[in-house]
Amino acid sequence: MEPETIKFLDEKYPKEKRGSVEKLNIRDKGLKGHLDLREFVNLEKLYCNDNQLTSLDLSKNINLNELRCYNNELTSLDVSHNPKLINLYCDAELFTENKIIGLEKTSIIRLDCRGGDLLHE
């Protein structure tokens, strides 16, 4: 993770309290690079949109049911360890270019792909 991202998480969410966090709203905080959220084991809702994140580690967030990660620089998104995920808001390119890994392993009800062109002629 980028030093600024680590500093932000350490200041706002001390390591000893991360396991009890259920909702994480870190949208538009200037976060960059990789975001490792494995310590947030009880996370249910993640709002990390409008940053400059390139990747997310959600491998330990089995209770995650809502993810808003649009307006970032994600090159792929792995949700294969998030079986309770029902709401996903992401950039259209991730969906149209088949860069969402494990979508079939989720309980997805709402998939909102923002930007881009989902209709191809």
Structure description:
The chain is α/β, with parallel strands linked by helices. It has one domain (3-114): Alpha-Beta Horseshoe (Leucine-rich repeat, LRR (right-handed beta-alpha superhelix)), CATH 3.80.10.10. It has two helices and nine strands. The protein has helices at 3-12, 92-96, and strands at residues 23-25, 32-36, 45-47, 52-57, 66-68, 77-78, 87-91, 100-101, 110-114. Strands 1-3-5-7-9 form a five-stranded parallel beta sheet. It has a two-stranded parallel sheet with strand order 2-4. A two-stranded parallel ribbon has the order 6-8. It is globular and about 35 Å long. Pfam families: LRR_4 (PF12799).
Helix content: 10-25%
Structural class: alpha/beta
Number of domains: 1
Name given to the CATH homologous superfamily: Ribonuclease Inhibitor
CATH topology: Leucine-rich repeat, LRR (right-handed beta-alpha superhelix)
Proportion in β-strands: 25-35%
Strand arrangement in the largest pleated sheet = 1-3-5-7-9
The sequence of SSEs as H and E is HEEEEEEEHEE
Largest pleated sheet: 5 strands, parallel
> For the record, what CATH class applies?
Alpha Beta
Strand segment count: 9
Shape: globular
Q: Count of helices?
A: 2
Rounded mean pLDDT score = 92
Instruction: Kindly report how far apart the N and C termini lie.
Output: 39 Å
Unreliable stretches covering 5 or more consecutive residues: none
